[in-house]
Amino acid sequence: MAVKALYEYDHPSRSRQELYGDDELVHVWWENNPMFCAAACFRVPTAIGWREFIEQMVNPWAASDPDFQPGSPTDWTLDGQPWQPDEARSLADLGIGHKSVVSFRAPTTI
Predict the structure, then answer these.
(1) pLDDT reported for residue 11
(2) Residue 16 and residue 11: Cα distance in Å, rounded?
(3) How many DSSP H helices and E strands does the chain contain?
(4) What is the pLDDT of residue 27?
(5) How many domains does the chain have?
(6) Residue 52 DSSP label
(7) Residue 3 lies in a domain
(8) Is residue 23 situated within a structural domain?
């Protein structure tokens, strides 16, 4: 979100990409799940593969919902646009950038 200051504002973001080296922040949002009112944020290497990212980070987080079934997420979006991940590619190759929002839908009974 842009800041409109009434004076000189010289405070660079404390979460800017350059502070993370080869890592980046990726937000993951399970849409329409009342257990997760906001996206989770993961710090990950940009070179990590999609499959590793899902298996090592997203699945354990999503498993907080007892209805979660790995492999059930559908309707993926990347930064609000419909998108289809490719398990064989890295996050960087998939166009997932610093502070990107990846969202999905999955069945839940809650």
Answers:
(1) 87
(2) 11
(3) 2, 5
(4) 98
(5) 1
(6) H
(7) no
(8) yes
| Spatial distance between the Cα atoms of 70 and 87, rounded to a whole number of angstroms | 14
The conformation of residue 97, written as its DSSP 8-state character, comes to: -
- What's the predicted TM-score (pTM) here? 0.88
DSSP state of 87: T
Question: How far apart, in whole angstroms, are the C-alpha atoms of residue 90 and residue 109?
Answer: 32
Longest dimension (CA), the chain: 51
Q: Which residue has the tokens 């979660």?
A: 68
Please give the Cα distance from 39 to 34 (Å, whole number). 12
Separation in Å, CA 16 to CA 11, 65, 97, 107: 11, 31, 12, 34
The residue segments making up the domain with residue 26 are 19-105
pLDDT at 10: 87
**Does residue 9 lie within any of the structural domains?**
no
Residue 4 in domain: no
What CATH number is associated with residue 42? 3.10.20.560
Burial of 37 (0-12, 13-18, 19+ CB in 10 A): exposed
